């Protein structure tokens, strides 16, 4: 069954992305305001139209959400979704989106959560880079870069962390110097997810070292295949090469690839991190799901441990935690749908997801013993569980460490005093880190 690009006949909610609020947002709140404009107004679908759209989503997913996992499978899925008018649902048609409403997006997420996450490899490209392009990009940038991002033809990565600037990203030392109509980039990034498969990346670099470290940072679009950009894979314990180091040696970026305002990159990066935590913390956030529970139930059944009362108790604790996480994710999505910034919900979901995986590892080891972390190449199921266990350790680091999430929650939710900052207001070039 195939669909052509389709438009809803009974609503008129697409907002104009030429609104002045898109041009120079200065804070994360401004960014979310722009995002909510992009997500459409408060138009409500009729019950009949909502059900018709739900059936349309379900029919598409029945046919296309069966192509396996990985970047190549995700690209095929996203291309088909865009062709069917289901790609970039909330983004303007001028930028390759479907120009639909937040209600459409909610229905799509609800239905998609019932299938394997075929497009999970694009969580950064679509969950972070795409909304940041929409919020901060110029008209020319959005028209050039967003359509092929939406279709999956061009994957994007995010380049924030450095060897000496992980949790304290504002201490970054990658420099960008303006040379005529180009920026010259020198420095190093690390832990860049899927840089080796990405066509473009969003980079933050220091453009003014004479001001405090949180100031003087700017955001850029970078061609990952350009001269002076070297990508080195990081070999992981599970045998994968998902993360990378990226080295910049006199790499040149067109002057008009500055993304957003010069020297406002910290506020823009904060907005992007907010998107990241919502994206990671609410993956599959359209419905209540228990993916790790499902994996362990299968493993327990195959190992004859499903009737073990201790294992059953552990599984039900995990089930309760994943259900709670889904509800937190749904709340974050509901806040965005209602036109509010998601607040700390992203950090809550992100931290809770990491805690879930700590428990997942403990239960997996109880069920399968040594086979939960090592495997015979001929044991396909053992391979699946062990890879899941080994790759789960990244959850406490990627997208901000557990400690950073606790700091955010303590500061912004509980109102606890912040750590003493001895470098506040000190120009970056006067700090020892510089």
Highlighted features:
single chain; 434 residues; alpha+beta; Butyryl-Coa Dehydrogenase, subunit A, domain 1; Butyryl-CoA Dehydrogenase, subunit A, domain 2; 3 domains; four-stranded antiparallel β-sheet; three-stranded mixed β-sheet; disordered N terminus
Account of the protein in words:
This protein folds into three domains: about 20-155, Butyryl-Coa Dehydrogenase, subunit A, domain 1 (Orthogonal Bundle), CATH 1.10.540.10; about 155-270, Butyryl-CoA Dehydrogenase, subunit A, domain 2; about 280-400, no CATH class. Helix content is about 40%, strand content about 10%. It has helices spanning about 30-40, 45-65, 70-85, 100-110, 125-135, 140-150, 265-280, 290-300, 310-335, 345-370, 380-390, 400-410, and strands at about 155-160, 175-180, 180-190, 200-205, 215-225, 230-235, 245-255. Helix 5 (about 125-135) packs antiparallel against helix 6, helix 7 crosses helix 10 and helix 8 packs parallel to helix 10 (about 345-370). The longest helix is centred in the last third of the chain and has 29 residues, at about 310-335. The protein is globular, with a radius of gyration of 22 Å.
């Amino acid at each position: 069954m195939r669909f052509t690009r389709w438009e809803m006949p009974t609503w008129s909610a697409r907002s104009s992305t030429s609104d002045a609020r898109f041009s120079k947002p200065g804070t994360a709140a401004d960014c979310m305001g722009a995002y909510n404009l992009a997500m459409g107004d408060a138009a409500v679908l009729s019950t009949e139209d909502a059900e018709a759209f739900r059936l349309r989503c379900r029919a598409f997913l029945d046919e296309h959400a069966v192509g396996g996992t990985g970047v190549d499978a995700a690209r095929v899925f996203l291309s088909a979704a865009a062709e069917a008018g289901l790609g970039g649902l909330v983004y303007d048609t001028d930028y390759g989106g479907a120009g639909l409403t937040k209600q459409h997006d909610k229905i799509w997420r609800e239905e998609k959560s019932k299938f394997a996450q075929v497009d999970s490899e694009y969580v950064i490209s679509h969950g972070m880079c795409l909304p940041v392009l929409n919020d901060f990009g110029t008209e020319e940038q959005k028209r050039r870069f967003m359509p092929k991002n939406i279709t999956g033809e061009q994957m994007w990565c995010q380049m924030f962390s450095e060897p000496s600037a992980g949790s304290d990203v504002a201490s970054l030392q990658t420099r960008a110097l303006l040379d005529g109509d180009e920026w010259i980039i020198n420095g190093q990034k690390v832990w860049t997810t899927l840089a080796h498969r990405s066509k473009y990346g969003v980079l933050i670099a220091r453009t003014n070292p004479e001001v405090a470290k949180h100031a003087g940072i700017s955001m850029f679009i970078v061609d990952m295949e350009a001269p002076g950009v070297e990508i080195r894979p990081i070999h992981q314990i599970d045998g994968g090469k998902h993360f990378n180091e990226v080295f910049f040696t006199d790499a040149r970026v067109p002057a008009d690839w500055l993304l957003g305002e010069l020297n406002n990159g910290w506020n823009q990066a904060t907005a992007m991190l907010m998107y990241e935590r919502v994206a990671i913390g609410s993956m599959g956030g359209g419905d209540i799901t228990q993916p790790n529970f499902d994996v362990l139930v299968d493993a327990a059944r195959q190992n004859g441990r499903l009737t073990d009362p201790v294992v059953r108790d552990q599984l039900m604790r995990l089930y309760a935690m994943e259900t709670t996480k889904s509800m937190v994710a749904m709340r974050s999505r509901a806040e965005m749908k209602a036109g509010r910034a998601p607040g700390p919900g992203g950090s809550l979901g992100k931290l809770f997801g990491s805690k879930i995986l700590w428990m997942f590892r403990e239960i997996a080891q109880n069920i399968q013993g040594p086979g939960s972390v090592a495997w015979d190449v001929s044991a396909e199921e053992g391979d699946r569980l062990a890879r899941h266990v080994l790759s789960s350790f990244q959850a406490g680091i990627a997208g901000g460490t557990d400690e950073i999430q606790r700091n955010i929650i303590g500061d912004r939710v509980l109102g606890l005093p912040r750590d003493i900052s001895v470098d506040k207001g000190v120009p970056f070039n006067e700090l020892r880190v510089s």
